[in-house]
């Protein structure tokens, strides 16, 4: 089932997610619905807060990058196979030079800005079967992970912008929270006027 994506301004996007265990109600159904919702919105990732749940769950499918000719063959291959569910994820270490990349977010449609993030991260997480993993991610795989990880920490990519950039997009963000934005997918707006 395609779920509405929570828009900028909803308090759930500012909550730090709670850890979950294998007894979480209807977890496999939730993951299936989140995948369907993400693909319907042409997203690369979707975090539980974006569908109104303050839990430490997100999924990523970076395979659309596999056809990006600007990336080298190795990175295209890595991203082409980067399709996972992350439960109770933690970033253990961030290292390397910070680099900028233009990011957007399904909860903040029509806003894209350059965000600086570190190149390499070491992560721990559980998959949908609650098997524990430790991995090192670099480049775009690390960036997509960091973006979704921020969601379960109550952080949005717009928080990482300079104060000038924040002032420049302030009106756009207010309009999004009021439902004054066109998105190609279902959304739930916290401050929309009810008819």
Quick structural gist:
With 195 residues, the protein is an alpha+beta fold.
End-to-end separation: 25 Å
The radius of gyration computed from the alpha-carbon positions, rounded to a whole number of angstroms, is 16 Å
Q: What's the mean pLDDT score?
A: 96
Q: Could you give me the name of the CATH homologous superfamily?
A: Peptide deformylase
The secondary-structure class comes to alpha+beta
Q: In percent, how helical is the residue content?
A: 25-40%
Strand content: 25-35%
Major beta sheet, specifics?
5 strands, antiparallel
Low-pLDDT windows of residues: none
The strand order across the widest sheet is 2-3-4-5-6
Total number of helices = 4
CATH topology: Peptide Deformylase
Number of strands: 7
CATH class: Alpha Beta
Overall tally of structural domains: 1
Specify the CATH architecture: Alpha-Beta Complex
Could you say which overall geometry the principal axes of the C-alpha atoms support?
A: globular
What is this structure's SSE topology?
Elements (H helix, E strand, L loop, with lengths): L4 E2 L20 H14 L4 E3 L9 E5 L11 H8 L2 E23 L2 E19 L5 E7 H14 L10 H15 L9 E2 L7
Parallel strand pairs: 1-7
Antiparallel strand pairs: 2-3, 3-4, 4-5, 5-6
